[in-house]
Amino acid sequence: MSLNTEITAAANDDAPKLNKRQLAKAATREKLLHTARVLWAPAGSYAPVTIRDIAAAAGMSTGSIFANWSGKEALWRDAMGYEPPVDCEAVRAALKAQAAQARWAA
Question: Domain range for residue 25?
Answer without folding.
Answer: 3-105
